[in-house]
Amino acid sequence: MTKRSRKTIKDVAAAAGVSIGTASRALNRTGRVSEATVIRVTDAARKLGYQPDAIAQSLRLKSTKVVGMLVTDLSNPFFASVIRAAEKRLQQAGYALLVGNTDNEGTREKFLIDLFQRRRVDGLIVGPCETENPEMLEALDSGDLPVIGYDRDFGEGQSGLHVDHRRAAYEATRHLLNLGHERIALLSSSSLLSPGRERIAGHAEALAERGIALNQALIRAHKSSMEFVASEALSLMSLRPAPTAFLCLGTRMLAGTLQGLQQNGLKVPGDVSVLAVGDTDLARLYTPAISCVTWDLDLVGQMLAELMLRRLGDDQGEPQRIMIPTQFIDRQSCGAPGQCSGP
Amino acid sequence: MTKRSRKTIKDVAAAAGVSIGTASRALNRTGRVSEATVIRVTDAARKLGYQPDAIAQSLRLKSTKVVGMLVTDLSNPFFASVIRAAEKRLQQAGYALLVGNTDNEGTREKFLIDLFQRRRVDGLIVGPCETENPEMLEALDSGDLPVIGYDRDFGEGQSGLHVDHRRAAYEATRHLLNLGHERIALLSSSSLLSPGRERIAGHAEALAERGIALNQALIRAHKSSMEFVASEALSLMSLRPAPTAFLCLGTRMLAGTLQGLQQNGLKVPGDVSVLAVGDTDLARLYTPAISCVTWDLDLVGQMLAELMLRRLGDDQGEPQRIMIPTQFIDRQSCGAPGQCSGP
DNA sequence: CTAGCGTGCGTAAACGTTTTTCTATATTGC
DNA sequence: GCAATATAGAAAAACGTTTACGCACGCTAG
Fold this sequence. Notes:
The structure is a homodimer. By secondary structure, the first copy, chain A, is of the alpha/beta class. Chain A has helices at residues 9-16, 20-28, 35-48, 54-61, 77-92, 106-118, 134-142, 165-179, 194-209, 226-237, 253-263, 281-285, 297-312, and strands at 66-71, 96-101, 123-126, 147-150, 160-163, 184-188, 219-221, 245-249, 273-277, 291-294, 321-324, 327-329. In chain A, the strands form two sheets. Chain A has a six-stranded parallel sheet with strand order 2-1-3-4-5-11, with helices on both faces. The first copy, chain A, has a six-stranded mixed sheet with strand order 7-6-8-9-10-12, sandwiched between helices. In chain A, strand 6 (184-188), helix 9 and strand 7 form a beta-alpha-beta unit. At the A-B interface, helix 4, helix 5, strand 2, helix 6 and helix 11 of A face helix 4, helix 5, strand 2, helix 6 and helix 11 of B.
């Protein structure tokens, strides 16, 4: 009891009175070994509390049973929920999940990819990152590291998963247009990221259907602290004529916008309509409740894991691209454009 | 270019015309090797794009440079932010972070601990989990796996980090008492978890100072879906006499409470005062803004990592216990108890 | 001129597995 | 009773590192 060093298969073999090769085959039930010794060996293993060393196995089997996941912000609920769901599915399949936070910096991402590669992860799931260097990821995958993109474009040949941000923005915009809004302010995450690009495209598409040109002055697309978004919202409201509706198309845009509007005593939806992407407690419980476009984050995580597992299993099958649909939830934050757009 | 198999140190040694032992010593600048060959070897390594295999290193060096972290819910912002900060600090120190979601199930936690142990993580950070089996964790640590508890009691001999939930609840309760409230409803996460226990203790302490007995009927402590919390809040409000204030001491208690109150048209703070733990967008932007007790999640993650790194480095030094202080933020959700407690 | 010593480097063992190859024994068929 | 064959299990190689050990060489000192 004093010496609690870890038991190896050698100990098990010795205890069972067989060679280590036989012990291994007995434990894994592979190769030819008599039923009697299987029992002897497994008994010994149980008695010793033997657990095979995953590192040694990895080295020998050339597979670590670990997949890495890289996102810009682990604490962003939009990623955190996805990670949770992905981890759950991967766990079921015997994989563990190594996470990395890129802070949306290209160098950091590259560093982490290198690191994970040295750690010999079996696969990599990468979220969007501003510095698109698709050639890097493509190289990775054409090497021997399966890569699944999440809301991230790289060549058509690669499998990946995309939320249908374009359609989400399209429907949200149409909703506002149907209410009579024509000057719609757009707050989005960076247009350098795939989600931002797609959202702006969907927005433009809906406007185009009504013959309304995209007004660049009404679009603000960059990454966001809440305070900055608030000031952006106010600066947008000081335009003349002022926008009559806000489309908050980023994960943390809604809070900033509401704060900005509150500061200036602007009422929703009386003075201005607000529509968000992503359903949060804030959207649900704010007064008035905020209409939004949302999608199933658990499904996203699950499908990412699924995609990865498929790539990890028998490699056949074309690269798959999955599109996650979005739903529109109508609440009380949108109305017809108000008359009080004067100073 | 067609054959892109991974380069090993053997390739580097061959390219530099030395033995693999020498190559290793040259790359690591350890042992005796002439400056000239150091240059030849590093050159060759760079030219070949050699990256040492972390798995093989782990096997040899008996250290994986990976730490595992187990929490009940990866998507809970209270954990997600901590994970992000911890990962950042660990990354700086050359460690990677393996995450696991326990869903607050003891069996799952045990499974993950075994799994991580087999993966030979260098250390383990464990958050609270309902099934306290401290003997397990203690055994782990007294074995050779450093364990850092996060809001989780195990023996006094172990190092860990605790948020000062007791003081947080104490101050929140005092605030309400000073406003004149005497019937305070308490919604908390499970009392089986350390945070829940501490909070209830702090609450009781503040009450005791005023000579008020803890009223079990006003306490609801279990894990929570938002809908369930809403119904709990309503059931509490139907007591006679009804509580005049709500203390929402769990990560997701506030949303449920507000929803329940809203459904019944109860006004905050007119009909009932509300006080929350944890500052969220919802608390900040709700009308009225919700007073709360909060603390620095980044600091928590950072200190967890720091504690772990210290344990991982030179092992000397007593086990450390860190207490994270909390701050009270007063907003508009608390007032003097209303008169309208009649039906 | 030789004994001693420091230096550079090659050799080999070790980490804990899995798997291939090979040997010894038992079984079968004639 | 003996050859052919099947089968259990042992031995050893391999995965990619790091490191202890020892050898050869050149230098200094007596």
